[in-house]
Amino acid sequence: MGQAWTAFTVEAGPAPGVAVVRLCGPGRGNMMGLDFWAELPLLFAALDADHSVRAVVLAGTGKHFSVGLDVQEVLGPWLLKLNAETGPTAAVRSELLRLIGQLQDGVTSVAACRKPVIAAVSGWCIGGGVDLISAADVRLASAEAKFSVREARLAIVADVGSLQRLRGIIGEGQLRELALTGKDISAQRAEKIGLVNDVYPDPESLLSAALEMAAEMAANSPLAVAGTKAVLNEEREERIARGLRHVALWNSAFLHSGDLAEAVAALGERRPAEFRGR
């Protein structure tokens, strides 16, 4: 756990075998920029290989868990290559397909980690933040937490795992409501639909509960815990992998649109987008 990271901090928890990973930016609200996506799979591979780590608590730094993808930093270079009249070339579409695959692999590294991961969510958890916590084994929240599968409001089909993983967590009807409306929901609603297991009064009691649960997991046989997670993941991850491939192909073909350009412009101008379906 001694490696230095740009988008994360990693420290030992108070109980043996527990690691605490915090998102730390560098963007506002722990926004997920290029450093985040480059480091995420490396970090969880390191945690997976570290025999001193038996459970992981994943949290944000500051008031929020994460406000989601840094659209300008991650998608900006791709958007600059678009031809306004002819649209993306096959090469540009292929580049986007590779980019989506990289983001998906980062989140999948959390699910694939043999150590159990507990997401402790305070403040906002938006878009990519929901993708990330959906790959955790357990999700807990503080009372002021808010969640949003917001991509449809940005003219994007969510493509990093929430549409695939949440189906087994909150059920089909709840998932369709959140994904098709892009609405924000409270921690209390999140608990009601099963997105989080429990809600705690404040971020301090949330972290304490997450650390206590992680300590319980870390005290068990690491072989049995890893085996249990592998068995639980088996059928689910095969289904998820198919869904991830499908949405990556879909977005590489259809992401470029007038609606996407309008969403980016509206975001920069801090105004509601006006979508025309073209």
TrEMBL record:
Pathway per the UniProt entry: Lipid metabolism; fatty acid beta-oxidation
Record carries keyword Protein biosynthesis: no
Membrane spanning stretches: none
NCBIfam families for this protein: PRK06142.1 (NF004794)
Family named by the database record: Belongs to the enoyl-CoA hydratase/isomerase family.
InterPro entries xrefs: ClpP/crotonase-like_dom_sf (IPR029045), Ech1-like (IPR045002), Enoyl-CoA_hyd/isom_CS (IPR018376), Enoyl-CoA_hydra/iso (IPR001753), Enoyl-CoA_hydra_C (IPR014748)
Keyword 4Fe-4S part of the UniProt annotation: no
Protein name, per record: Crotonase/enoyl-CoA hydratase family protein
Any Pfam family the entry gives: ECH_1
Entry keywords, A to Z: Fatty acid metabolism, Isomerase, Lipid metabolism
